[in-house]
Amino acid sequence: MAEITRRRTGELLRALLEILFKHPDGLQAGEALKQLEQRMTLSEYERGTYSTGSKRFDKIVRFATVDLVKAGWLVKSRGKWVVTDEGRAAWQKLKDPEAFYRRAVELYKAWRKATPKPASSDLEVGGGDEESDSKQVAVTFEQAEEQAWAEIETHLRGMPPYEFQDLVADLLRAMGYHVGWVAPPGKDGGVDILAWTDPLGTRPPRIKVQVKRLASSVPVGDLRAFMALLGDEDVGLFVTTGSFTADAKAEVRN
Q1: What is the pLDDT of residue 46?
Q2: DSSP reduced 3-state for 215
């Protein structure tokens, strides 16, 4: 990593956060790295690969984002990266790339100092100092998590719609709810599953579920149509393998 200066690292990280600003709900790590690579002019060193075939640029950025995570500026969850309010504030305040990254490193070191060290056997990745090994563990885990979630999403989106519907019903049962009805193939009137908190369904709330197995975002119109089916003692649960448009999210919050 000696070929990468602190200023250059700061430039990459600030550009990365600027990309993530456009995705308040998070962006898949792989897509974020792809957009960053397209946006920046890479040096010959950054364009290189390791003997394993992995891209040096990706590893450079991933290692540096560990500092951002421990600084509280970035959250990584289920393969997605999301900028925090603290990260936005730091990006706006620390406009000099070197100062930006320096502050992230300071916060990372403060986190390490305050965090109990794991047993040496937990960090036996070899070849580097303790800090580098710790970051290597974090990056390796992160990539494994990204791959796992990507495979889960691919599997769910590839399921036949009614199998996915049955899966949601089984999940509700596993959570302790009593599923009284699952829509058969054909028109369902906008409700796919009915569930209750007690076996006889005598105690409110009644849970109405709509299930959509799709890759696109659910529009506000579809959400409003479902909400119109909810009575005073109903709870609505809209399950999708996709996402929701900004208008749909605002509708629910209001």
Answers
A1: 94
A2: coil
